Amino acid sequence: MDVVEAQLFLTNRAGMTEKTAAQYRQAIQLSGKTIYSPIEVGDSEYWIPTESLEQLLNAGLSGRSLAGLALRTRSKVVKAAVCEALGYPIPPSFAKVQPRFLGQQLDIYTQKSLNLQIWNEELSPERRYALIEVTSDDTIGLVKVVNGQQLAILDTTGTITTKYQARLERGDASHELVSLADTPGLRPYVRSGLQFDASVSPVKPPANAELLPIQEIFSRLAPLVGTTFPDPGRDQERNRGAALHGAVCRSLGYSRHEDTGQFPDILHQLLEVKLQTSPTIDLGLVQPNSESRLDVEQVGQFHPRHCDTRYAVFFAETDNVTVRITNLYVTSGADFFSRFRRFEGRVQNGKIQLPLPRNFFRP
What we know:
By secondary structure, the protein is α/β, with parallel strands linked by helices.
């Protein structure tokens, strides 16, 4: 048993799920694949899901000393450590490709500060970014893995290369079910009348026969129109969203609210929740009708795509004291632009500079 496997074994003894991560690593070790071998997103054998990827990197990298290393040497040492952590052989030299770990659609950034800089390329929604904390004594601390969509949310400077937006025109109806049915690929895996046990998390991966039909999502969320909650303030959009997400989770039948910042918000239902107090809907780096695959495991024999995601768009009015929900629109990603007008994304070049939150590595 090597160091990484030992770390995973010990944390698994504490009731965590790293055993699954270790199995992915073992599959990579036995496959003969290199970091440049292409792997289809969501491949059940070799594509390491983001949660497991983060577990493996923390087990393999945390605590390693980088003291005294020149920057180029440090970069090579870290890349070699990532190879070992994921079960890949270390190549004689690292090719200058994007992303660096092509097979897992993974780029790595060592961060001694909370200022993330990405040069001469756009953020990609499908790419994973491993941000590796380097402490003041030049030791690797924690590793966080996020995708481009999640990084886009952190952009407060307007430097993200491409963002998509749409416009909401309210119309006369307070409730609109835009999509009368789920996308054909998803339909065999939905089930009406589901009741969720208290142990079921709204951010666990979706599973066969655990997905509500889009019509039932609409009916369960419809009573939220007309409800109110205290407004935390104009500069507190994230807290406004958290209040709504909690109400959505309860309405869908979950006993608790959880939010990991991933897309979609309620992963267990492939449901993205939008709270709008203005007509402009920010969509991040992905168009809802995109047929690219989501970074999730298969549901039955089907791999969900962005266009299979369900969207609950709430419009609300506020007097800066109380937020009142006035409208609900529920649609699949595939039908999103049949109801909401698309804006064209902007393209910028050069450096992307993202200030990471103070609690990014240690919430």
